[in-house]
């Protein structure tokens, strides 16, 4: 689904009328997160957010998996597998599974660390530990109480912030900001703009940087499409690389790439005499027959300073 426009603006009539429902939603979340979680014998690191939609959690999980690997620790990712059909704990195998089975993000994450999809996060974590995980990276589980978290990072998109500051459906928040930050060990703000936060946990800062692949984007005519939380970030990245962005199509987050949609996107690119290009996350939803025809721009998270997070990992024996 697309986020309503009023979520990103100052509170107006629509958000005020929906605020009572937002209070109900916030109360339900508070009751849910108060439930005790289980431990699975290894540390659990949670990467989550306070808002609906993308904030940069997937690049953060990738960066953590690589950091832990460099420290000699085997991390496994556990995720719900949004929009996937698999329910029981299953290790993602790209040679067997497609995006319809697991969702798009698990397929992408599986290229960097063993990744499990499971509707029951505790069952998924147990399966990961049985398979050799020395630490579990819980993707998008900050409001899920199933597992006890040893360290939680709340990721914030600097460009979007917390929108109008209201709770779903009056705004984009899954819970009030102060309530959520009280459970976090770190916040990670991604992007150049500063986000004002109430007093809370230590702050990390980072940015998404295109991976150097040797591709010369300068002057290349492209037609860009993306189904991520904020597609305009991807379009801006292409422009910053010097690409000649002749057209764009902002899709809903995780939007299925149906045959009719792909046909229309291909026709638009051809009419513009432009190369189709999309994100890594969208690319895993493409049919195999089209993956060679659509280019991607891989991006990686770069933290300004790993010091405080490295120290926290060391405290956990990682």
Q: What overall form do the CA principal axes indicate? A: globular
For the report, how would you describe the main beta sheet?
9 strands, mixed
- Quaternary state, please? single chain
Number of helices: 10
Structural class: alpha/beta
CATH architecture of the largest domain: 3-Layer(aba) Sandwich
Q: What proportion of the residues form beta strands (DSSP E)?
A: 15-25%
Catalytic activity: a lipid A disaccharide + ATP = a lipid IVA + ADP + H(+)
Family: Belongs to the LpxK family.
Pfam families: LpxK
Protein name: Tetraacyldisaccharide 4'-kinase
Please tell me about this protein's structure.
The chain has 318 residues and is an alpha/beta fold. It has 2 domains: 13-208 and 302-315, Rossmann fold (3-Layer(aba) Sandwich); 221-297. It has 10 helices and 13 strands. The strands form 2 sheets. The protein has a 9-stranded mixed β-sheet with strand order 3-4-2-5-1-6-7-8-13, sandwiched between helices. The longest helix has 21 residues, at 13-33. The model has no long low-confidence stretch (mean pLDDT 94). Transfers the gamma-phosphate of ATP to the 4'-position of a tetraacyldisaccharide 1-phosphate intermediate (termed DS-1-P) to form tetraacyldisaccharide 1,4'-bis-phosphate (lipid IVA). This is Tetraacyldisaccharide 4'-kinase.
